[in-house]
# Entry
Amino acid sequence: MSESAAGTLDLRGTNLHCGRCGYDLGPAAAGWKNRALVRERPMAGAGGAPYSSGAHVLLRTFLCPSCGRQLAAETAMKDAPFLDDRLHTGSAGGGP
Ligand SMILES: [Zn+2]
# Structure
């Protein structure tokens, strides 16, 4: 039995897995993005001409290391830490 976050990540027990190939991304409460492939590029031009931010604003995409599926995306300033996304469920433990 698994729980899904938009069909992209599956929670199996306490670990998150790729929703396509099942790659184990580690404990849901421990920063799964560190186990994903990360691609960064400047936001300037990332979505076409309307996106004209400076080169210091990045679009980060997090990909499954096994199948390459995009698991998440975020915007960030250069050298800023990853957004700490956490999936809270009744079975995963952890606090609010
Ligand atoms: Zn995968």
Q: What stands out?
A: Residues 18, 20-21, 23, 64, 66-67, 69 surround zinc ion (CB under 6 Å).
